[in-house]
Amino acid sequence: MPEPIKGVSSRYMAGIDGLRALAVL
User: Rounded mean pLDDT of the chain?
Assistant: First the structure.
C-alpha cells in the first residue's frame, strides 16, 4: 500500500475510533 494512502487510512481509522469513544461517553 502506498505511504500517503496508508497515512490517510490510519488517520481515518483514528477519527472513527475517536467518534466511537465520544459516543460511548
Answer: 78
Q: How far apart are CA 1 and CA 6, in angstroms?
A: 6
* List of residues 6+ apart from 1 with CB closer than 8 A: 9
Q: Tell me, yes or no, if the pTM score tops 0.85.
A: no
Beta-carbon contacts of residue 4 (< 8 Å; ≥ 6 apart): none
Rounded CA separation 21/18 (Å): 5
Indicate the SS3 state at residue 2: coil
pLDDT class for 2, splitting at 50, 70, 90? low
